[in-house]
Amino acid sequence: MLKAGVLGAGHLGKIHLRLLNQSDKYDLIGFYDADEANAKRVVEEFGYTYFDSIDALIKAVDVVDIVTPTLSHYDCAKKAIAHRKHIFIEKPITNTVEEAEHIRELLSEHNLRGQVGHVERFNPAFIAVKDKIEQPMFIETHRLAEFNPRGTDVPVVLDLMIHDIDIILSVVKSKVKKVSASGVSVISDTPDIANARIEFENGCVANLTASRISLKNMRKSRFFQKDAYISVDFLEKNCEVVKMKDAPENPGDFDMILQNAEGIKKQIYFDNPEIENNNAILDELETFANAINTNKTPIVTLHDGTEALRVATMIINQFK
């Protein structure tokens, strides 16, 4: 078992502590949190071991799980790597692309493993269809959330939209050619609502919308490709795959047939895969342990996290 320690015991940090504690891949050693009052509450409620300094915790573990505010990711990761520790780091990977690239360089120099917490990659609805997404040419995403003061210290792009940026970059095998975007600040100092259009060199276009002042929660993505339409509901954890094929000579009474102006007939059919329920956060943590133990590449690499941040930064710069 890998000895693990968590930096940050906020809302998400507590979830990581609980899951690491129950995982058979890790031995949870303890945690550090800069807020001593919060740390004491966590100890009293859950009984986890509290370390009074970051360095003390890092020295005691094999894997450092960084769940601190984004501004501190870079310094925490540097300290962990200096002590030759593997790092799991929550999204966004760091505050700037330059910091992310430096962390990648340091990790590579010391032959260590790192993974970024883009948890939607482990969403069972996305896992069920990801192999069916082939050369999408148009993608539309909506990620809407009811207002929550937590997270409003960063633009909605880094808070919410970055999830969809990472998903899109994982399925579009082409370089980004152009980004255009607009954002509106309603209740925060940074944009609360944003829309972005990402154009890729292969002709694919992605249209992303994110809001953190919506009246309802929504996390939906739609992928359009030749002869197929795929939708993923990340919130409800369901998906739909609609495909087209040449219509049979003698279609059945219940077959859905479309005919275009040239007289070509196509049959519409559903190819919905089975969805296996999982705990996405536990899965991302445990697959990282597997990557360390087998010396394999993690599912969401620091390169992936850096590229998602790079595109997010391009979008944010459009607001200026």
Automatic annotation (TrEMBL):
<dbReference type="InterPro" id="IPR036291">
    <property type="entry name" value="NAD(P)-bd_dom_sf"/>
</dbReference>
<dbReference type="InterPro" id="IPR055170">
    <property type="entry name" value="GFO_IDH_MocA-like_dom"/>
</dbReference>
<dbReference type="InterPro" id="IPR051450">
    <property type="entry name" value="Gfo/Idh/MocA_Oxidoreductases"/>
</dbReference>
<dbReference type="Pfam" id="PF22725">
    <property type="entry name" value="GFO_IDH_MocA_C3"/>
</dbReference>
<dbReference type="Pfam" id="PF01408">
    <property type="entry name" value="GFO_IDH_MocA"/>
</dbReference>
<feature type="domain" description="GFO/IDH/MocA-like oxidoreductase">
    <location>
        <begin position="156"/>
        <end position="216"/>
    </location>
</feature>
<protein>
    <submittedName>
        <fullName>Gfo/Idh/MocA family oxidoreductase</fullName>
    </submittedName>
</protein>
<feature type="domain" description="Gfo/Idh/MocA-like oxidoreductase N-terminal">
    <location>
        <begin position="3"/>
        <end position="118"/>
    </location>
</feature>
<dbReference type="InterPro" id="IPR000683">
    <property type="entry name" value="Gfo/Idh/MocA-like_OxRdtase_N"/>
</dbReference>
